[in-house]
Design goal:
Order of helices and strands: HEHEHEEHHEEEEHH
Number of helices: 7
Strand content: 25-35%
Number of strands: 8
Distance between the termini: 67 Å
Largest sheet: 5 strands, mixed
Radius of gyration: 20 Å
Low-confidence stretches: 4-18
Strand order of the largest sheet: 5-2-6-7-8
Mean pLDDT: 83
Structural class: alpha/beta
Shape: globular
Helix content: 40-55%
Length: about 200
């Protein structure tokens, strides 16, 4: 490739990178949840007293661009932060009780929920989540199931609101997908009799 073409490609890449603005979605996800209390409709069951995020889930980092959200913006979703905010939210506390975060150890007394993210994407104007949820206690892993959910698409909001509405669109679609997953998980876990084993 001629040197002038290399220079042009390099300049375009440099400009594109320099103009890209990171837009974190999860940093104020707890505030978003606080502004949308009592919209989850989760069933109630005391299943565990702790939850644990494996390192890959805690460190998850997903980036995407959207023409509707302004292509100069890079939207960043960190699912570990989403899960932490979700478990602290008043709707989840009302459904599961106060479930504290376990450190580096997912075992111990009582039941521990383990969340392992399999996949997160934001495509076709909506969030798509595949999440494995297991329950561990002194006997080992006593429950595990993989849940998939698609958050309601937010194309209208993205079209009319552009970059100003994009963060809210990602947060809302992500929340709707998580509500669906958690509701199914709680019903499944409660049906096994494990809820009564939680201390």
């Amino acid at each position: 490739m001629p040197i002038y073409r290399i220079a042009i490609v390099s300049a375009v890449l440099a400009l594109t990178t320099a103009c890209s603005i990171n837009r974190p979605v999860a940093d104020d996800y707890d505030t978003y949840l606080g502004n949308n209390v009592k919209t989850s409709n989760l069933p109630n069951a005391r299943i565990a007293d702790k939850y644990y995020l494996p390192p890959a889930t805690q460190a998850h980092h997903y980036e995407f661009k959207s023409v509707m959200g302004g292509y100069a913006n890079t939207w960043v979703v960190e699912f570990g932060k989403v899960l932490d905010a979700t478990m602290r939210s008043s709707d989840v506390v009302a459904a599961l009780g106060s479930v504290s975060k376990a450190g580096n150890d997912k075992s111990g007394a009582g039941n521990t929920l383990v969340f392992e993210l399999q996949r997160y994407s934001f495509e076709d104007h909506g969030a798509h989540i595949e999440l494995a949820i297991s329950i561990r206690n002194a006997q080992g892993e006593v429950f595990k199931k993989v849940y998939e959910a698609d958050g309601r698409t937010q194309g209208g909001k993205m079209f009319w609101g552009g970059a100003f509405a994009m963060k809210n669109a990602v947060q809302q679609s992500t929340k709707l997908a998580m509500d669906d997953i958690l509701a199914r998980f709680i019903r499944d876990a409660a049906g096994t009799g494990l809820a009564s084993a939680a201390k």
